[in-house]
Amino acid sequence: MNPTIAVIRGDGIGPEIMEATLHVLDAMALGLQYEFVDAGLAAYEKDGELLPARTLETIERLGVALKSPLTTPVGEGFSSINVALRRRFDLYANVRPAITFPNTRARYEGIDIITVRENTEGAYIGEGQALSEDGETATLTQKITRKGSDRIVRYAFELARSAGRRKVTVVHKANILKTTSGLFLRVAREIAAQYPDIDFNEMIVDNTCMQLVMRPEQFDVIVTTNLFGDIISDLCAGLVGGLGLAPGANIGKDAAIFEAVHGTAPDIAGRGIANPVALMLGAGQMLGHLGMEQEARRLRRAIVATMEARDSLTSDLGGGGSTMDFARAIARRTAQ
């Protein structure tokens, strides 16, 4: 049976980069089927809901979704639609590769880092937010659990092993956050002892950021908590040319959502000039999740070859091509 995936076109430039991505997937003749559902502003304007029940039911039934960027209206509903999706489907592992591509503005060559970020707990979730009546004091609860720490660190080590990676770096702030980050680090050490074939080291988050800028080649797989992972994964994207080349996978036991991690870029929406590579790379992660790793590699090779040839690149990559020009150039190379 050909796999069917839920497709969320998204807001802003979302529909344009999704059209480009599906064009390439269709050109690869993979037999994928699509069920289109709405979320974000598009859903709100149509149904008055940011996350309609039909969308949630479709993702739950199919177990796989490809998502363009979404807008959460200010003052409406969720603090973040992405956070709501991650919590609804317990998508505990956020996997963000940062890989050097040719002909970008990247300052480094040979970067190949995967950040594995815990996705469902910690400060980023925003639990226990409160503002005092006089407006002078704001508080926030940060909760880290043994279960959450165990499964994300174990995921990182399993990913390293299956992908032939050599090293996992656990990033923390246990020197100061002795309870929350301390628990995460203690669990990480316990898990690391079960994987003697994988090198393990631990690094404080502020030093990690400095080391990423100074010697990024020392990193292979990074695993960390939610807020630190959010910051570090964007830093890694900056090493390889920016968020236009940054995909993300949100993985849970029963569902997975794949995406471009950049925003909706409303300033260029509708102009047909958006770079679709991040979402295409997210689609590549999706293919690997579906057991189509050979096809995922074929897609990534086509992207690299198109960038090497400077064929129809979008303006952010130094070219003059449109979103669909770029997509058609990549699609042609998927057959090579």
From TrEMBL:
Residues 4-330 form the Isopropylmalate dehydrogenase-like domain. Belongs to the isocitrate and isopropylmalate dehydrogenases family. Its EC number is 1.1.1.41. Keywords: Oxidoreductase. The keyword Oxidoreductase applies. It comes from Denitratimonas tolerans. InterPro entries: IsoCit/isopropylmalate_DH_CS, IsoPropMal-DH-like_dom. This is Isocitrate dehydrogenase. It comes from the Bacteria. SUPFAM superfamilies: Isocitrate/Isopropylmalate dehydrogenase-like (SSF53659). GO terms for biological process: isocitrate metabolic process; tricarboxylic acid cycle. GO terms for molecular function: isocitrate dehydrogenase (NAD+) activity; magnesium ion binding; NAD binding. The keyword Transmembrane does not apply. PANTHER family: DECARBOXYLATING DEHYDROGENASES-ISOCITRATE, ISOPROPYLMALATE, TARTRATE (PTHR11835), ISOCITRATE DEHYDROGENASE [NAD] SUBUNIT ALPHA, MITOCHONDRIAL (PTHR11835:SF34).
